[in-house]
Amino acid sequence: MIDILAIYVLSLGVKLAAYHFSGFTAIFADALHSVVDITIISILLMSERVARKAPDPSHPLGHEMAKNVASLIVGVGFIAFLSFELAKEGVDKILSPTGLYENTETAIAAEVFVLFLLLLAAFLSARRAGILNRTLLIESMNDALSTLAAIVGVGLVWLGYPIFDGVATLLIALIIFYNSFKLVKDNAKLLLGLSPSEEFYESVESVCVDIEGVKGVHDMVGVYTGENSIHLDLHVTVDEEMTVKDADRLSVEIAKAIRAKHPEVRHISIHFCPHGGKKRKIYDT
Q1: What pTM was estimated for this model as a whole?
Q2: Which ranges of the chain does DSSP label H, i.e. alpha helix?
Q3: Per residue in 137-172, pLDDT tens?
Q4: I want to staple 237 with a disulfide (CB 3.0 to 4.6 A). Which of 18, 146, 215, 279 is the partner?
Q5: Nearest CA among 14, 42, 24 for reference residue 118
Q6: 265-273: strand order across its sheet
């Protein structure tokens, strides 16, 4: 991931230099988009270390939510500041276009080089496994789209349509807003106690009922304690004459079977009872 971060820092430097020598607001907006992505990548790197911290008395389920908290704060900040300010600048440029631009050819060449760097970052991320690299792939493609918008905007200004500097700036502001809003939405769902899909619960039930001694499963509750970590609580119907010793043995067997099918289940609480119940348990406060 360090190499991807280095590519982004290099692309930011090229964008800022292109803006300095040309004065295109669209290129400055594209540079701010790189700032967004560099911040996100830095958060991923730092939070990955925090997430690896062992559970402690204050955080018995671990620290995997650290990235989600940081990403939520960053997403809100970018929505409130960067996208709003860029949109305002873009509208101003549309209403009052200016022809005071220099080194247009150099600006286009610089942005094309940046586009190549971003596609390289996307290629490297696509070849690597893991949710962090999938996130980087999406960010690289979004940033490439932003850079492409800047190239088109600068090109149209070069052809004699100065209004498109503002149009490209506004478009990039909307791209930043969309990415930031999605960042807030995805992380807020986890922090609010997101439950796994119905397919997950059906799979867990299928795994359990295939085990000898299990008559049924009910009152299942699953909550994400991290981006790829689930705490699962379930009730298992067994013979009311089952001994504590046999129940203990069965709980180990159930936990192993569930984790074999769903390794994302990090914590399991199993309750035995002689009766059935609803498949899912929804806590009514």
Answers
A1: 0.68
A2: 2-22, 25-51, 66-78, 84-95, 104-126, 131-158, 163-191, 198-209, 244-261
A3: 777 887 888 899 999 999 998 998 889 999 998 988
A4: 215
A5: 14
A6: 216-226, 229-237, 265-273
